[in-house]
Design goal:
The structure is a single chain. The chain has a single domain, classed as Alpha-Beta Barrel (TIM Barrel), CATH 3.20.20.210. It contains 15 helices and eleven strands. The chain has a seven-stranded parallel β-sheet with strand order 1-4-5-8-9-10-11. The chain has a two-stranded antiparallel sheet with strand order 2-3. Helix 13 links the parallel strand 9 and strand 10. By secondary structure, it is of the alpha/beta class. The two termini are 27 Å apart. The longest helix is centred in the middle third of the chain and has 25 residues. 46% of the residues lie in helices and 12% in strands.
Length: 362
Amino acid sequence: MSDPEAWNPMSHPKNDTFLRALLRQPTPYTPVWIMRQAGRYLPEYNATRARAGDFMSLCRSPDLATEVTLQPLARYPLDAAILFSDILTVPDAMGLGLYFAEGEGPRFERPLRDEWEINDLAPVDPWGNLRYVMDAVSQIRKALANEVPLIGFAGSPFTLACYMIEGKGGTDFERVKTMLYGRPDLMHKILAVNAASVTTYLNAQIESGAQAVMLFDSWGGALSQAAYLEFSLAYMEQIVSGLTRERDGQRVPVIVFTKGGGQWLEKIAAIGCDAVGLDWTVDIRDARARVGKSVALQGNLDPSILLTTPDVVQREVGKVLTSFGAGSGHVFNLGHGISRLTPPENVAALVDAVHDQSRIFH
């Protein structure tokens, strides 16, 4: 990256292809970034994480968060950086006691089990317990020196609630759904607090220098349509309507991604976001036919393809690009986060293939 002293918060990124694609403006090629691009598939990330001691120490150190955010950009000509953090920083700041068990993923020491705990929940102040995130955002933005845009992010209210109630991820959501159907008042209380927290959290990230933001609704696809609309999408719409959409004279685009949400694309596109993220189960040509006039689309290569060979990666990238077709409004990405087992050279093949093969469509 170039000299941080040259950074000016008012100036536009030298490479603004990602921002232009989100706003469906013409671009010379399709931009690409990768969900979880700073992660365990990179040996340099693993070295920094080992130095930090544990995952949350890495998140809570602006210096180390900046270091790992920049690592994939030093390796690959990606079109955007994404803040290195975790969606669970918000419930952690509420006092639920986040920790990471080796090989088991995130856990909460004090999941929400009792009614009084839920009634005592209050929105978090992003400038208080989450100040370390804002410090990281401003530090990363300065280190990027306006080379590429910086993406901020948060978990959706429903996805956060799943972790807060179950105490961990990857469950069958029995506790969550029992509360959702049996005591919807309690679920709405949690979701309202989460939505208020996420709105101020994302706005603080924008104020600190994030140039686009993304909502990750990792578990919304576990719901029935009626429950999704009431308990997930309604709260994401509330957040989108409360976000700062312009900063330093530039539009701040918003991406909304529900994993497993392909059947609700039109409804997601209608909440006021600029782009809809697609998982790999959706055909991007169909998605564009359904919603492409109103929003940009982000996605949607199956992350498992990156476990193969560079030749296979290049071939499959071509299929996604061809499926989307000509014109702007596509940000290339995976259909979910990159696997830690991915060979780094396959990511190089992916980024080069997107840049090389997409030019004929623009």
